[in-house]
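Suppose a classmate hands you a notebook page containing two proteins, each written out with its sequence and a corresponding row of C-alpha cells. How would you begin to make sense of it? This section walks through that situation. The first entry is reproduced here exactly as it would appear on such a page.
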Amino acid sequence: MEGHHRDFLECVRTRARTIAPPEVAHRSTTTCHIANICLRLGRKLRWDPVAERFIGDPEADRMLARAMRSPWRL
C-alpha cells in the first residue's frame, strides 16, 4: 500500500491532514461527474459552483444524486 492510501490511514491514526485536502478531491470529482452528465445528456451544461447545481436544467440536476428508497430520506 503506497501513496494516498498509506497517507489516509496514517492520518486516521494521527488525526493529521492528508496530502490532498478533501476540498480539492471534492472539486476534482465534481468536474468528472459534470462531464459524465454532459456526455449522457449529449449537450453543454452551465454549472453554478457555489450552489453546486446546473443553471436552468432540472433534468441535469436530477442526475446529481440517486433517488433514495423508503424509509431513507434527507
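The notebook's second entry, a different protein, reads as follows.
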Amino acid sequence: MDSWVLKVAAIFLLLVGETVSIFIEVILARRYAFTQPFWNLFLKGFLVIALASAFLIAGYMLGFRSFKNIWVVSVISLTTILIAEPIIDYLVFRQMPTAGALIGLILAATGFVFAVFYK
C-alpha cells in the first residue's frame, strides 16, 4: 500500500475508535443517570468499547508504520478526543463549552495540522 493510503487509514481508524469510545461512554453515563440497570448498560458498553479498541489498535499499528513516529499517532489520537468529546457532550447533554474548552479545541486542531503535515 502507498504511504498516504496507510496514513489516511490510520487516521480514519483512530477517529472512529476514539469517537465510538467517547460516544458510548457519554450515552451510558446519561442512561445510568436516569436509573437504568448498571450491569445491563455496562455489558453492552463493554462490547462496543471492545470493538472500538480494535479500531484503535489497528490505527496505532498502521499509524506508526506509515508516520514512522509514535508522537504523530498520539497527537492524532489525543486531538480526536479533544475535538470529539466536546461535540458529543453537547449533542448528548446540550451543554455549551466554556471559553477554556473552546480555546483548547482550537489549539488541538492547530496541533493536529502541524503534527501531521509539518516535518
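A careful reader of the second entry would note: The chain has one domain: 3-117.
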